[in-house]
Amino acid sequence: MANNENIDWSHLPFGYIKTDYNVRCTFKDGKWGEIEVSDSEQISLHIAATCLHYGQAIFEGMKAFRGRDGKIRIFRPDENAQRIQRSARGVMMEPIPAEKFLEMVEKVVRLNERFVPPYESGSSLYIRPVEVGITPRVGVRPANEYTLIIFVTPVGPYFKDGFKPTKVAVYREYDRAAPCGTGRWKVGGNYAGGLAATERAHAAGYSAVLFLDPKEKKYIDECGPANFFAIKDNTYITPKSNSILPSVTNKSLQQIAKDMGLAVECRPMLLEELADVEEAAECGTAAVAAPISEVADMDNGIVYKIAKDGKPGPVTTQLYHHLLAIQKGDEPDKHGWVKVLD
Length: 342
Ligand SMILES: *Cc1c(COP(=O)(O)O)cnc(C)c1O
Known about the structure:
Helices cover 22% and strands 28% of the residues. The chain is of the alpha+beta class. Strands 1, 2, 3, 4, 5, 6, 7, 8 and 18 form a nine-stranded antiparallel β-sheet that branches. α2 (77-90) packs across α3 and α5 crosses α6. 46% of the residues are buried.
């Protein structure tokens, strides 16, 4: 059994640390079986499993936090339950019933309770469900057996060196998804598709790639693993597109923006609009909101300077603090987003 006594809770990376248990459930003979608890980090797969050859692999990501009151809070797991069902249907996999998914999430968190970082650390427990097709197939066809596994791992605060804006790059020669493809689902293959562009951006000193819409290359889609939003004239603007993954964080930030009195626009957003936005950020479970200082259009040398003083904008900062405070239980959960484990 892993030891948690020497974990430095305040300085965890966003990486994998072994915990005590994971939970598993298999769909076979037309039905989902019992939830199994495992202490193994391995799975045994047939060499012809559809997940290995034909990309039948989907995943989710969410977090659990320990509150000041010591209670564990899971943020909007029902949204992830809905989304993994949409992803499953998108690539002809078996959708897991939401109640079963939620039972598994709660179970794996409780089983690994000693790995939920203390409140003061700023860290959290990352929850990673993954579902794969396991039927051996050589011809291209969906599997008829699926395994869903949920593991957890404690992760550190995303902003180790403080909440600071970073630069992102635009390249027209790469897409993460096709116009009517799998971009709107959390399918493993989408991330493989984005790796080359992301590695190139990192090598050039950028933290991420901002992908354009794959059809016209005019509108902003999203960053590799995070949605995008901008702030202008007291309005929260976020791109609408068929190739974006609908982010739970983005959905939550839109509500918080409304609560703060901002207007919210979800619409196609031209890259050139960045010339006069006041703030821009990426958003997703890992970071909540990561402010962007500049967007470099690498194909024609245009640089959109957004955080001119190098500091995060005031609206992004407020959105970030509000959402984190709701997740940790420091602010009232007036929209009923938080699942508190008693
Ligand atoms: C997971 C993911 C996000 C963020 O979604 P959250 O639900 O906020 O974590 C955004 N974009 C892509 C492509 C993703 O895979």
